[in-house]
């Protein structure tokens, strides 16, 4: 059987990375909306704690099962908060069997930091 070659995904440009610092020019409507979504995801203490746990992990990725105890929340609640972080581009997820593994996206965190100047 013929196996087709695997084409690596094309890198996508992070919409937050394109934003100038807020101290240098006024944001456009689209830029403000993208940034607001990312900052809104960080505005919840549980999500901020979960992101911190994933980003500070000594391992490259963290299993969803390891997020329950440090957050003090139930599995459905953790999944809800992690989905918001994923949708904001702050973490990625990969499902393996029954578990989901999360990885922080340092480029997005760096871009948000740069926007604040």
What are the segments in which pLDDT stays under 50 over at least 5 consecutive residues?
A: 6-13
The fold-level CATH name is Arc Repressor Mutant, subunit A
| Name of the CATH first level | Mainly Alpha
Query: Percent of residues in helical segments?
Result: 40-55%
Strand portion: 5-15%
Strands of the widest sheet, in order across it, are 1-3-2
Shape: elongated
Structural domains: how many: 1
Largest sheet: 3 strands, antiparallel
What structural class results from the helix and strand content? alpha+beta
- CA gyration radius, whole angstroms: 16 Å
* Secondary-structure element string: HHEHHEEH
CA(first)-CA(last) distance = 55 Å
Question: Would you give an account of this structure?
Answer:
The protein has a single domain (29-115), classed as Orthogonal Bundle (Arc Repressor Mutant, subunit A). It has five helices and three strands. The protein has helices at residues 29-42, 45-55, 68-71, 75-87, 106-115, and strands at 62-63, 91-96, 99-104. The protein has a three-stranded antiparallel β-sheet. The radius of gyration is 16 Å and the shape is elongated. Residues 6-13 have low confidence and may be disordered.
Keywords:
elongated; 44% helix; 3 strands; 5 helices; 117 residues; three-stranded antiparallel β-sheet; Arc Repressor Mutant, subunit A; alpha+beta; single chain
């Amino acid at each position: 059987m013929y196996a087709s070659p695997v084409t690596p995904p094309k890198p996508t440009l992070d919409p937050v990375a394109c934003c100038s610092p807020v101290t240098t020019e006024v944001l456009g409507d689209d830029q403000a909306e993208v940034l607001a979504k990312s900052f809104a995801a960080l505005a919840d203490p549980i999500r901020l704690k979960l992101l911190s746990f994933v980003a500070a992990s000594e391992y490259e990725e963290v299993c969803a099962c390891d997020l329950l105890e440090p957050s003090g929340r139930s599995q459905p609640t953790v999944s809800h908060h992690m989905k918001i972080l994923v949708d904001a581009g702050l973490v990625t997820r990969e499902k393996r069997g029954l578990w989901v593994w999360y990885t922080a996206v340092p480029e997005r965190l760096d871009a948000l930091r740069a926007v604040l100047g």
